[in-house]
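Hi V.,

You were right to ask for the full record rather than a summary. Here it is.
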Amino acid sequence: MWTRKKLKDRAKFALRQNYWKIVLVALMAGLLIGGGGAYSGYGQNHGKSQSQSERVIHETSSREGIWDDLEVDEEDSGASASLQQEKLNRMVDENWPLIICIVIAVIVIILVVLALAVVLDAFILNPFEVGAKRFFSHSIVQKAEVKEIA
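Predicted structure:
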């Protein structure tokens, strides 16, 4: 029967025997595999102030582009709604091949990135994680080697 003292002594002995190897493997596993815990995305916008956000909104809304023709004139606001709709329809009719190409390009890029992520996870990260766990299991019973990760 295991007692708490025996387990504690066994863990201390294994840690003393393989301390720097365990630290190295834990550091490598932490960097490659990552934590991915509940707070992994916390603090991404933590340092951004209100004025920076407002500045970004102002800069993006003040840029000139293809939508400049759609500005509403103060003088003829009665006919402006149908005129604006007509201009918008004309712009879409002229640029629909470009819009379709952009949408297809974005979809292809997203699919390629997802495929690369799956391949990276399946063939590099998961085997490394299994090897690290095997290393830690072996380090309890015997003097483990870092090469057991691969």
